[in-house]
Structures are given as C-alpha cells and as structure tokens.
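Minutes, project check-in
Item: structure for the 274-residue chain
Input as provided by the requester:
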Amino acid sequence: MNAEMVQHPTMSEVKVDEDIVVGRVRDRDLKVDVFRPACPPGLVPGILFLPGGSWFTANRAGLKDRFGLPLAEKGYVCVVGEYRVAVEAPWPAQIQDVNSTIRWMRANSSEWGIDPSAIMVAGKSAGGHLALLAAATTGVAEFEGDVGNGKVSSEVCAAVGVAPVVDISWAVGREDLAPVLGEDPSPEEIRAASPLENVQKDNPPTLLIHGTSDSRVHHSMTVSMYQKLEQAGVPADLHLYAGQDHSFDADPRFTQAIVEAIDLFISRFVSIKD
C-alpha cells in the first residue's frame, strides 16, 4: 500500500516507550523515545526526529508533545533521538550518533513495526543540520561510527529540516553556538559538514520548513538549500511561514501545520510495503 492508505490512530492508541538504549558511546548510553501506533495496519514508516540546541544540548523531552505523539497519531513510528553535543565529544561524533540510531532502527525494525525501506530522518535547527547531512552523506565512512549494527545501512528514504543549519560556516566563531567542528576548522571540514555543500542528484526527497523572521538561523540558507536541491533534480518542498521566528514550531498551530506537511510529504514521496 502507499502512505495515503495509512490509518491514523487516536491518541489513546499510541504506545510510548521512553529511554530505550540504542547503543553505548564511550561512557554513556545513547537513548531514544519511541512513539508508535498501538494497532498499525502493518509495517509503517519510521521517522527519526532530532532536537536542536545549538550543539550545546540535545534534549529529547521537548519533542514528545511537539512531534513524537502527533506523528504517531498519524500512523508513523516516531523515534525521538539524541546525540553527543560538542562539549561531550568532538566532531564527527554527532553525525555518527545519528547514523548509529538510523542503523538501530533498521536492525530492530520488525520489533518496532517499522518498514525498513521507509526510514526517514528529521530535525530542528542543529538537529536539522544533522538530519540533512545524514541524508546526503550515506556511506561516508568517517560519519558512520562504530556504535553497533555496522553491517546495516544508514540510508534514509527522505529528510525533513525545520529551521535547519545547512551551511556550517555560518556557525563558526559564534559565541552563542557550540564550536561543533572545533575552534578552527579547515575549509574542507566545513564543506564536508555542510548539507548545502553535499547536495547531489541522489539525495532523498527533502522537506524544508522555516520562518521568515528567524533571527537565529536566517531562512535564506534554507531557500538556498531548496534551490540547490531543485537544480540537482531532487524532489523537494519548501514551506516558509511569514513573520515567524526560530521557535515558531513550539506554537501548537504551527506544530499542527508542520505535522500535516510531513504527513502530506510522506504520502507523496515515501513508498510503503504491503
């Protein structure tokens, strides 16, 4: 069947499993919260959703009500993930943690009711940076890490960025952002870590969402990302919300709009097994 045929459960039919350990990195566990329909019609798409936090923090809690529960209510398995932040581990630990979580989702897909061919990655702000980079750099050995399931693919079928950082050069030297690439990254390191510089024709379908009054991450970067995807022939949607700032997605009205946009995007671009 296709995504248009997914039956949407009610909130009472959503299962929530919190603090699930997906791997151990150095001296701490890498955890996720899993939100899923209690009675799905079969295997359904899985969405890894990554929090922002300027690479200083990666707090899963804020995404529970915002995206975890609503996406599960739509009939998807939403895995709210985390990653080591800059003070915990140097780059590329952050993208390695993301790819490790994607591999965990695929390796354990039958247990969680996920279609292993329909795993996508999404993120907000710094999480959007990591989501879009993971989607664009599948198979890059440096970014894969060794946190388990090494023989499982980290490929995703689609990506979503909400107010994402797509050009990491913008973050270098800013005191209000963690130095995720270190204090003095080379031009090559900046390019390798920037989704904007990794757009290719085989990038997966991508949904980009941004507010036009975002003073923290200017929406022009997201527009440039959309244009580059379009030029490469990658299916891409761009949703701009006039007058909205960086945290507009916390407003329930816009949360609902974003969830609806993701749902429509999946129905158009993500195939689901019968």
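Outcome recorded: Confidence is low (pLDDT under 50) at residues 1-5.
No further action items on this chain.
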